[in-house]
């Protein structure tokens, strides 16, 4: 049986099993602690019966600063999935969906317009997962990732994917054919 709970500082010593994937971003300790302090309700771990961390999701809610409101790239109050990972031996069991839905509920509670995330263009497994959960590509961020695990080119594009939440009744924060809407990484505010 799997249990979800809020991430705790000592979990930093227990997430290695989940981070051994080349597509999982690894961050320094202060980055994880920043999320834990600022957005504790959006940082969730999944544990198995033995108490091992078998997955986690780390997210936040944010809004671009006021000056960005006058740019075409402004983002209103929204949730963001920073990291989602599941231990390799626990994949394809629905755990990623369970963790994602928990974060979406937290963002609904905080009155966010939508949840977004960035995924590598070549990560078909993740793209299919998110599309199956109602996310769609909003825009392509050219060479967002500085490496390309396939070795075909220097960098890899990211898809900025979004799922509207109940506050966005008119669905103004999604678009069709977002794969064709290209932006540069510097067009995205990173507060």
Write up what this structure looks like:
The protein has three helices and eight strands. The protein has helices at 29-38, 95-109, 124-132, and strands at residues 3-6, 43-47, 53-62, 78-86, 114-120, 136-145, 156-164, 182-183. The longest helix is centred in the middle third of the chain and has 15 residues, at 95-109.
Which sheet architecture does the biggest sheet show?
8 strands, mixed
Shape: globular
| Protein structure class | alpha+beta
Biggest β-sheet: strands ordered side by side in the sheet = 1-2-3-4-5-7-6-8
Helix content range = 10-25%
Distance between the termini: 38 Å
Radius of gyration: 16 Å
Strand content: 25-35%
Low-confidence stretches: none
Number of strands: 8
Mean pLDDT: 89
What is the H-and-E element order? EHEEEHEHEEE
Helix count equals: 3
